[in-house]
Amino acid sequence: MPSFITRELSKYPALNNFEQQTSVPKVYVILGLGALYFFLVFFNIAGEFLVNTAGFAIPAYYSLEALFTSGKADDTQWLTYWVVYAFFTVIESALNAVYWFPFYYTFKFCFIIWMALPQTAGAQVVFRSLMQPLFARFFEGGSTSANLRSQADKAQ
To answer: Membrane-crossing residues (predicted)?
Structure first.
């Protein structure tokens, strides 16, 4: 396992330079930063900022990467993620759930990672089981703006 991680981390020149300059193995650097991140989130020390950064920055990178590929599967995956993330953010701000649940940001971080990972396809699960049944009636037969336009034309 460590050799696999070292091989993967060797793809990043900044980590290689850091390892050469400090003599600290890049695996230890990443594990240390990861442990610090989870410690801060778990004890809600800048939890909102850290979790929202993970929920925005990492998926934003992969969304941009998907836009530069010719396939549409990754585009659909990330579009679905952003729709669910936006819906979740609106609901979260309306309910102000942070004050109700202990370790809220720990659970939110796990939820966001589950939604974002292509292996788990969590955003698709949330979309198909919750959002699609709720909103499908508004989008049947094309986009809402097209339906509104046709209804307005009929009314005249």
So the answer is: 27-43, 79-99, 105-127
